[in-house]
Amino acid sequence: MSSLTPHGADSSTCSILDVPGPRWFHPGDPIWRVHGDAATPIGITTGLLMLVANPAFAAVLSACGVEDSPWTVDDYLHDLVEISTFGTVDDAMVTIEHAYRDRRSLSGTTEQGEYFYGLDPELLEWAHAAVTWALLAAYQRFGAEPLSPAESDHYVRQCAAIAHLHGARTSPTTVRELEQLLRSARGRARATAAGRTAAATLRSSARPCPGVVDTSVTAHRQCVTVVDAAAGLVPSDVRRALALPHRPMDRTAVFGRITRAHEGLGRPMLTTRAPIAAPSALRARPR
């Protein structure tokens, strides 16, 4: 499915923050801090593992032919998170509209024979909650300056606003509500051949951690330490469904292995063509 393939601009030269225009969030916001941190790739990969443990999302991977190349989906999630958080309002809305169009075309049956469709509001609510939890958990575990409880709730509220734009009818607005939703939906994590294939491929295709020679954002995202940290961060039901090893890692273990790879990652880099939508850039240039 072409929509799951990132457009792939040169992230070393094109930053989201270089595109002028109004934005939903700003540097002082919790969502900016969480999504702009070097721990973000761990959060995205954790979220991806949670998604592929869901039979419906595993079936989507099979239908799109990407269960053997899950890094394309990892990049897709990065695009959604980065552009919604750091992009202009127009670029963010265009990206959300594209995601809605993609979901609308997805329907079928899982390996267990259960019907699913991409615009199912309960599935969408759960997916956003899973990714939100994953990003926050990665930041709190591996980030340099964890959020306070009040800031964490603020982060969840900011993510809920984006979820509503994606079509979620309701979304958690506090960490407690977020965790309650995920605990009540533990039955969504079940073993499937497609899900286990995707998880195994993520681990087997992960690259050695980049160092002085290769400090690109893509190399950092796909390094083995990021994958191992994500596998250790997922909830136990996801770990069982995907047959993942349980090797918890702390910040020292993660950042002790990745040195120069983190330099420059505090400034979010664009992974799709920019600008996506011209109007905001035009409005921001008074004549």
Describe the structure.
The protein is an all-alpha fold and 287 residues long. It has one domain. It is built from 14 helices and 2 strands, in the order αααααββααααααααα. It has helices at 30-35, 40-52, 55-64, 71-86, 89-104, 121-142, 149-166, 175-184, 193-205, 217-221, 224-233, 236-242, 251-255, 279-283; strands at 107-109, 115-117. The chain has a two-stranded antiparallel sheet with strand order 1-2. It starts with 29 loop residues before the first helix and ends with a helix.
Amino-to-carboxy terminus distance: 42 Å
Number of helical stretches of at least 4 residues? 14
Strand content: under 5%
- What is the H-and-E element order? HHHHHEEHHHHHHHHH
Low-confidence stretches: 1-12, 259-270, 278-287
Average pLDDT confidence is 80
- Give the helix level as a range of percent: 40-55%
The largest sheet, given as strand count, sense and whether it forms a barrel, is: 2 strands, antiparallel
Q: Structural class of the secondary elements?
A: mainly alpha
> Quick one: how many beta strands?
2
Shape: globular
Strand order within the widest beta sheet:
1-2
What does the radius of gyration come to? 18 Å
Number of domain units: 1
Short descriptors:
about 290 residues; mainly alpha; two-stranded antiparallel ribbon; about 0% strand; disordered C terminus
